[in-house]
Amino acid sequence: MFKPSYLSMYLIAGHQNFKNDPLASVERALAGGVTAFQLREKGSDAYRGQARIQFAREVKRICQRYHVPFIINDDIDLALTIGADGIHVGQEDMPIEEVRKVVKERMFIGVSTTSVEEALAAKAEGADYIGVGPLFATASKVDAKTPIGLEGLTTIVKAVHPLPVVAIGGIKPENAALVKASGAKGVAVISAITTAEKPDQIICAFRTHFD
């Protein structure tokens, strides 16, 4: 069962995003107040095969200890193998209706969107929530599109209401209040936490706006 509160402090990462030990870093982030974790193993250095499955299982165990939903990015086979709580897909991944046929009601489904048209389509197709961005310029994704800005976020939030929206892309504690005011249920971040010297302090700063 999906809850909009999952989106408050949504961390996205693969093992390659962390400066220090990935599992220890995930645990520290969850202990610090992360409300959802999405495993995004992408790129040439991503874990594959059995190493990918084993890492996902270990991350899932950490998420279970902290009662935090564990979401897999794109890889439906992996999500089914380990029994993830949710699956998140992009515009170039499997269509939502096909994902739903496979996962049925075992998982909730999130979709990445960058426009009103994509957001409305995701809502019509049965997404449980949508990710909207990039909101601001970001260095975390080499293929990131043009930032939509706060005005673009507000427009999408209003268009898909009451579908929950989590914003992503270049979001920092100092601009989180503006994101909240735009109607997003939370923020999704990668480098703001994975590269932080004191991630728990960053998480706490974000959570002051979305608790």
UniProtKB/TrEMBL annotation:
Protein name stated in the entry: Thiamine-phosphate synthase
Family according to the record: Belongs to the thiamine-phosphate synthase family.
Record note on cofactor: Binds 1 Mg(2+) ion per subunit.
Binding site for 4-amino-2-methyl-5-(diphosphooxymethyl)pyrimidine: 38-42, 73, 112, 141
EC number, as in UniProt: 2.5.1.3
Source species: Streptohalobacillus salinus
This protein's pathway: Cofactor biosynthesis; thiamine diphosphate biosynthesis; thiamine phosphate from 4-amino-2-methyl-5-diphosphomethylpyrimidine and 4-methyl-5-(2-phosphoethyl)-thiazole: step 1/1
Catalysed reactions, as listed in the record: 2-[(2R,5Z)-2-carboxy-4-methylthiazol-5(2H)-ylidene]ethyl phosphate + 4-amino-2-methyl-5-(diphosphooxymethyl)pyrimidine + 2 H(+) = thiamine phosphate + CO2 + diphosphate; 2-(2-carboxy-4-methylthiazol-5-yl)ethyl phosphate + 4-amino-2-methyl-5-(diphosphooxymethyl)pyrimidine + 2 H(+) = thiamine phosphate + CO2 + diphosphate; 4-methyl-5-(2-phosphooxyethyl)-thiazole + 4-amino-2-methyl-5-(diphosphooxymethyl)pyrimidine + H(+) = thiamine phosphate + diphosphate
GO biological process: thiamine biosynthetic process; thiamine diphosphate biosynthetic process
Function description: Condenses 4-methyl-5-(beta-hydroxyethyl)thiazole monophosphate (THZ-P) and 2-methyl-4-amino-5-hydroxymethyl pyrimidine pyrophosphate (HMP-PP) to form thiamine monophosphate (TMP).
Presence of the UniProt keyword Phosphoprotein in the record: no
Residues where 2-[(2R,5Z)-2-carboxy-4-methylthiazol-5(2H)-ylidene]ethyl phosphate binds: 138-140, 170, 190-191
Cofactor requirement: Mg(2+)
PANTHER family the UniProt entry points to: THIAMINE-PHOSPHATE PYROPHOSPHORYLASE (PTHR20857), THIAMINE-PHOSPHATE SYNTHASE (PTHR20857:SF15)
GO MF annotation terms: magnesium ion binding; thiamine-phosphate diphosphorylase activity
Residue intervals of the Thiamine phosphate synthase/TenI domain: 9-193
GO cellular component terms, A-Z: cytoplasm
Signal sequence extent: none
